Amino acid sequence: MTRDVGARIRALREARGLSLSALAAEAGIGKGSLSELETGRRNPTLDTLYAVAGPLGVPLASLLDDHDGAVIGDEGVVATRVRVVREPERTTEVYLLRFAPGAARTSPAHVAGVEEQLIVLSGAGVVAYDDQEVAVGPGDHVRFAADRPHAYRAAADTALEAVNVIVTPA
């Protein structure tokens, strides 16, 4: 998986005419880290993949293993790809997110027009976007523009499990 993800990143970067330095700077990661990702010598983290996907102008699914059930996780957050639907006007990605108690994930802005929805299955936490924090629990649904930085955080004493739907326009 690591080598395949790196190859996808490199191919997308080169197709866009971006140098390694330029993509690393736009993504806010080190040039050496990006080089190691592209060559498969470094395991990608969810945060790093989101950071790279934005400047490349692609949904996260374009970087991951291209099959339902693909899993990526780091620092108390695990995302499992449930489904990706590619249509001419948009790509819709569905993930099952699992956060350990107190775990958080901050996402940089996605490309213009991206929208996210979070449906909480169990646990409690907070969704932060547009300078607001929304407390969430089982059954809650939050919808927001994700072309700005946003974050998810599980409550300190309980795990959070949710469905995350990301819609990226073509």
Automatic annotation (TrEMBL):
Alphabetized SMART domains for the sequence: HTH_XRE (SM00530)
Source species of the chain: Nocardioides ginsengisoli
Source taxon at top rank: Bacteria
PANTHER family linked to this entry: HTH-TYPE TRANSCRIPTIONAL REGULATOR, METHYLPHOSPHONATE SYNTHASE
Key word DNA-binding present: yes
InterPro entries documented for this protein: Cro/C1-type_HTH (IPR001387), Cupin_2 (IPR013096), Lambda_DNA-bd_dom_sf (IPR010982), RmlC-like_jellyroll (IPR014710), RmlC_Cupin_sf (IPR011051), TransReg_Diox_bact_type (IPR050807)
HTH cro/C1-type domain span: 9-63
Iron listed as a keyword: no
Pfam families tied to this protein: Cupin_2, HTH_3
Protein name from the UniProt record: Helix-turn-helix domain-containing protein
Organism placement in taxonomy: Bacteria, Bacillati, Actinomycetota, Actinomycetes, Propionibacteriales
Keywords of the record: DNA-binding
